[in-house]
Write a structure and sequence with these properties.
With about 325 residues, this protein is α+β, with helices and mostly antiparallel strands. It is about 25% helix and about 20% strand. Helix 9 runs antiparallel to helix 10 and helix 10 runs antiparallel to helix 11. The radius of gyration is 20 Å and the shape is globular.
Length: about 325
C-alpha cells in the first residue's frame, strides 16, 4: 500500500522539469523501479511526474559518423532487438537481453535502467541504513553474499544495471535536461560512488532528466561482449558480470575497457587489467595476466569471497573467447 500523491502527465520536457522541481517529486518512465520503491517504502513522494507520453524521448537514431543516440524512453526490448545496435554495439544487445524478465524488458526503459535504485535487501527492507540517512550499513556485518567487493566505502551495494557497464565500456555519454538547460556527462562519471555521496546514485540534480544516450561511432577493429553470471538463469541480477570493449589491430590490443557489474556500487573499471592488455597480443599469457589483475584490490565481505575466483575465471573465459574470434 502506498501513500497518496498527485500526478502530472508532462506534455513537454520543460513541463516535466518544472514538475520535478516541486517538493519531493519523482519521475515516472516505465515505472518498474519507481512503483516497487513506493510500495516497499524505500522513499515517499508527493508528486509523480510521468514522462511516458514524450515521444521525443523514444527511439534509436543514427548520428553523423556512424554513432547512435538512444532516447531515454526506449525500452530494453527495443534495444535488445535493434539491428543497428547489434551490428555496431553487440555487447549492449547481449546486456539488454539479460535484463530481468521479458515483461520487465517490455516495460522498462534505458533511462530507468541506468537510474534505478540499488537492490540491497537492507536498503529495500525496513532498515534505516546509511543510504537512507542512517548511521550504518547493515550488510557489512549481515547477509552480504550478493554485495560488493570493490568500492564499498561504508555502503556495500552493487550497481544493479546490466546496460550501464556496456555503455561505459563503449564510452557512451548521457544527455541531461534540467532547469539550467542541457548538459552532457560521460556515463563513466554519471554514477556516484559511496565515498563521494552515500545517499545518491547518479549526478542528476533537482529537476534534471536523462533525455538520451549517445554512443560514439565504433572504431575499426572493435571487439566487444557482455557476460553475466547469476544465481538463476532467468531474471536475476548479476552475481558477477563483465563488459569488454577491445580495439584490435590484427592480434594486438590497442585500447581496452573492462567494466564489471555485480562488483561495486558503480560500474567498475579494471584499470590495471586494461593497461596490461594494451600493446599485447591477445594470447593465453596476456589473458591470464589481465584476469589476475582484474581482481587486484578486491575487499570481500564475510560471505562473498566466492566472487573473486568467479570474476577472475569469467574474465579469462571472455577474453579467450574474443581472442578465438580474432584468430
Amino acid at each position: 500500500m502506498t501513500a497518496g500523491f498527485s500526478y502530472l502527465r508532462a506534455r513537454s520536457i520543460n513541463e516535466a522539469i518544472s514538475g520535478l522541481l516541486k517538493s519531493n517529486a519523482r519521475i515516472l518512465a516505465g515505472g518498474t523501479d519507481l512503483l516497487g520503491c513506493l510500495r516497499d517504502h524505500v522513499f515517499t513522494t508527493d508528486m509523480v511526474v510521468s514522462i511516458s507520453g514524450l515521444k521525443e524521448l523514444r527511439g534509436i537514431r543514427e548520428t553523423a559518423g556512424g554513432g547512435l543516440t538512444i532516447g531515454a524512453l526506449t525500452t530494453i526490448t527495443e534495444i535488445s532487438e535493434s539491428r543497428a545496435i547489434r551490428e555496431r554495439y553487440p555487447a549492449l544487445v547481449q546486456a539488454a537481453a539479460n535484463v530481468a524478465s521479458p515483461q520487465l524488458r517490455n516495460q522498462g526503459t534505458i533511462g530507468g535502467n541506468l537510474c534505478q535504485k540499488p537492490r540491497c535487501w537492507y536498503y529495500r527492507g525496513e532498515f534505516h541504513c546509511i543510504r537512507k540517512g542512517g548511521d550504518r550499513c547493515y550488510a557489512f556485518s549481515g547477509e552480504n553474499q550478493y554485495h560488493c567487493i570493490f568500492g564499498g566505502d561504508g555502503c556495500y551495494v552493487v550497481h544493479p544495471s546490466d546496460t550501464a557497464p556496456t555503455l561505459v565500456a563503449y564510452g557512451a555519454t548521457a544527455h541531461i535536461g534540467g532547469p539550467a538547460g542541457m548538459r552532457t556527462v560521460p556515463l563513466e562519471h554519471f554514477f556516484i560512488p559511496p565515498a563521494k555521496d552515500v545517499t545518491k546514485e547518479t549526478v542528476l540534480e533537482a529537476g534534471e532528466i536523462v533525455t538520451e544516450i549517445f554512443l560514439p561511432p565504433p572504431p575499426a577493429g572493435l571487439k566487444s561482449s557482455y557476460r553475466k553470471v547469476r544465481a538463476r538463469q532467468s531474471w536475476d541480477f548479476a552475481l558477477a558480470g563483465v563488459a569488454l570493449a577491445l580495439q584490435m589491430t590484427e592480434n594486438t590490443v590497442t585500447d581496452a575497457r573492462i567494466v564489471l557489474s555485480g562488483a561495486a556500487p558503480v560500474p567498475w573499471r579494471s584499470i590495471d587489467a586494461e593497461q596490461a592488455l594494451v600493446g599485447s597480443v591477445l594470447d593465453a599469457d596476456a589473458v591470464d595476466r589481465a584476469a589476475s589483475l582484474s581482481i587486484i584490490g578486491a575487499r570481500p565481505l564475510k560471505h562473498n569471497a566466492y566472487k573473486i575466483p568467479l570474476f577472475r575465471g569469467m574474465i579469462e573465459e571472455e577474453l579467450l573467447n574474443i581472442s578465438q574470434v580474432q584468430l
